[in-house]
Amino acid sequence: QFPFGRRLPCDIYWHGVSFHDNDIFSGQVNKFPGMTEMVRKITLSRAVRTMQDLFPLEYDFYPRSWILPEELPLFVAEVRMMKDSDPSWKPTFIVKPDGGCQGDGIYLIKDPSDIRLTGSIQSRPAVVQEYICKPLLVDKLKFDIRLYVLLKSLEPLEIYIAKDGLSRFCTEPYQEPTLKNLHQVFMHLTNYSLNIHSGNFIHSDSVNTGSKRTFSSILCRLSSRGADVKKLWSDIISLVIKTIIALTPELKVYYQSDIPAGKPGPTCFQILGFDILLMKNLKPMLLEVNANPSMRIEHEQELSPGVFENVPSPVDEEVKVAVIRDTLRLVDPQKKKR
């Protein structure tokens, strides 16, 4: 590790947070300029909605979203209109702070009037989305999928999707949202960093049991129930490609301002974490995209109050080691010389 940079050039620079960690004039950097900004909840929603306006049928994998506070009147008006046209429609909405991560500040509401219009929403913008009420359940639990996607280059656009990912489970059996259970985060929110604090969280030594499993183990179960796993994969691949296409125009602007064409400079690649929810009918829905997905392969275990140790996590190791290894193979600068 070179916390203060290094004088001699490297083949690959592996940065912690963003492209601007250091001045780099050659080699390959594992971050794209502008990516962190582009996948924030509001920017991502805007980019996908632009495409939804142009290609509504192609971009139906992202829940209806509104940006707060600026679209609050629009949100209130649209919900009222939809309720008037269909009185049986009883929606739930999920409010997510723009810069939040690890489930921080997320809450569910039944009516636009329930939005917490305290100082925080003014100073801390958010996205409100229609909550997906009919998720696919495994062992009566709601779960999401973290898939790892390598964006290898923007021009030409080159995308690789890891064959396996993580399935992260809620820790309380799922029930459709009601006013009584809206606040039960362990039932509704799949965030690992929330559920790990639940008394029901199961750290497992096996990749197909516990509160975090491999996605391939879920696919095996679905396949044994007769589900069309091939179609599911092709829908997921399509969702990933279309999402990246929605982000590409602005990413190119960032790229060209930092690395002007014709000038010597580094090239970029980046591992993204796609969070996807499967509906009961196996339709994948995009929840969000993470520019810095965690690559930790151990978890903290509390031995006694306040005393923690790091314990290896076989599930994380199986998935993440493969992601890093294959990424390095794909961007290997020596490959051409061999």
UniProtKB/TrEMBL annotation:
GO process terms (BP): microtubule cytoskeleton organization
SUPFAM superfamilies: Glutathione synthetase ATP-binding domain-like (SSF56059)
Cellular-component GO terms for this entry: ciliary basal body
A Pfam family annotated for this UniProt entry: TTL
Classification lineage: Eukaryota, Metazoa, Chordata, Craniata, Vertebrata
InterPro entries xref list: TTL/TTLL_fam
Keywords: ATP-binding, Ligase, Nucleotide-binding
PANTHER family for this protein: TUBULIN POLYGLUTAMYLASE (PTHR12241), TUBULIN POLYGLUTAMYLASE TTLL11 (PTHR12241:SF154)
Gene Ontology MF terms: ATP binding; tubulin binding; tubulin-glutamic acid ligase activity
Record-given protein name: Tubulin polyglutamylase TTLL11
